[in-house]
Design brief:
247 residues, alpha+beta, Alpha-Beta Plaits, four-stranded antiparallel sheet, membrane, transmembrane, protein tyrosine kinase activity, cell membrane
């Protein structure tokens, strides 16, 4: 015989474990807010754009084959711009006290689809330093690419700037809190159903009929301890009254 669970039983389970769900959700949300606002380091972002094009002012008509070549070169440039040959000079000129590997991890190179423009984006806790690294990387790359590939087809389209009242790109406290709230709620609900599933104790006469498939013939009432004390007190008072009347 298949066991079915009604919506009423589901709501009863949620209501029974409501304190647990609220507790877990609250702890997850508050913890996420505290960590996001007070423990995570704000990270700022700065970007510069680089144009890959043939440096020839006399050329008026674009060659489609040449543009396609420049687009293919962008993939090569994306590797070169993060290479030690470029980053070592950036590290030296800015006097940055961090390794080449750490500097590499801070820099992301991305290109627009079918575009001769690609961007160099730098993440750093200091917005001014992020802009400085992005600009210096673009400048060094423009100088060194002529020596490396014997091609002068790179120009800086826009420089990274430090904006006033610039906001960090991460962490995002409100998003973190919202995610923690949803995760905490789902965890609380899941744990509530798990505890209910593992709880195989018999508490009511309905549980007997449900699990044992037997009819309930009678129920023995439970006398609470307070009620017993009250009865004993009444009996003592009655005995005291009886003795007073007898005397």
């Amino acid at each position: 015989m298949e066991e079915t669970i009604s919506l009423k039983e589901l709501f009863q389970t949620l209501r029974k474990r409501l304190w647990l769900i609220v507790l877990i959700t609250t702890i997850a949300t508050v913890t996420s807010g505290i960590v996001s606002y007070f423990f995570l380091t704000p990270i700022y972002q700065a970007s510069t754009q680089i144009l890959v094009n043939k440096a020839n002012s006399e050329q008026q008509i674009y060659n489609i084959g040449e543009i396609q070549t420049n687009l293919q070169l962008i993939n090569t440039y994306s590797v070169i711009i993060k290479s030690p040959a470029i980053l070592e000079k950036v590290q030296e000129e800015l006097e940055i006290e961090r390794s080449i590997e750490q500097l590499n991890e801070q820099i992301q190179v991305a290109s627009e689809k079918d575009s001769q423009v690609f961007s160099v984006t730098v993440n750093d806790p200091d917005p001014a330093l992020a802009a400085a690294i992005a600009n210096k990387t673009a400048e060094v790359f423009k100088e060194e690419i002529v020596k490396i590939m014997k091609i002068d087809n790179v120009s800086i389209l826009s420089k990274a700037e430090v904006k006033e009242n610039q906001k960090p790109v991460k962490p995002k406290p409100l998003l973190n809190i919202a995610i923690a709230f949803v995760v905490g709620l789902m965890t609380g609900v899941g744990l509530a159903f798990l505890l209910e599933y593992l709880d195989n104790t018999v508490k009511t006469e309905q549980d007997i009929e449900k699990h044992l498939q037997l009819p309930v013939l009678g129920v023995i009432g439970v006398i609470e301890q307070n009620e017993q004390k009250a009865k004993k007190t009444k009996m003592k008072m009655s005995d005291a009254r009886g003795e007073s009347f007898g005397s």
